[in-house]
Amino acid sequence: AINRFKSVIDTYPDSNQVSEAYYRLVTSYTMLGMNKGIEETYTLMEQKFPKDKWTQKAKKLMKKTGV
């Protein structure tokens, strides 16, 4: 799943689905306990999509999981 979400981000950078792909990456990394991936992906989300609903969902997920 991680590779598919990265592919969406890399192949379709102007798509309106990119912010959701970042969120799905955060959830995938969370399930695998990959804190570095979570933090790096969330940082990119904050930079690129600071007010997006998917960024807000990622923020809530990170607080919930303690990352």
Concise overview:
This protein has 67 residues and is mainly α. The protein contains 4 helices and no strands. The two termini are 21 Å apart.
Number of helices: 4
Task: Label the overall shape.
Answer: globular
Which class best fits the helix and strand makeup?
mainly alpha
Radius of gyration over all CA atoms, rounded? 11 Å
Distance between the termini: 21 Å
Low-confidence spans = none
Helix content: over 70%
Beta strand %: under 5%
Please describe what this structure looks like.
Helices cover 78% and strands 0% of the residues. It is mostly helical and 67 residues long. Helix 2 (18-32) runs antiparallel to helix 3 (35-48) and helix 3 (35-48) packs antiparallel against helix 4.
Write the layout of secondary structure elements.
Layout lengths: L1 H10 L6 H15 L2 H14 L4 H13 L2
Helix pairs in contact: 1-2, 2-3, 2-4, 3-4
Structure keywords:
67 residues, single chain, mainly alpha
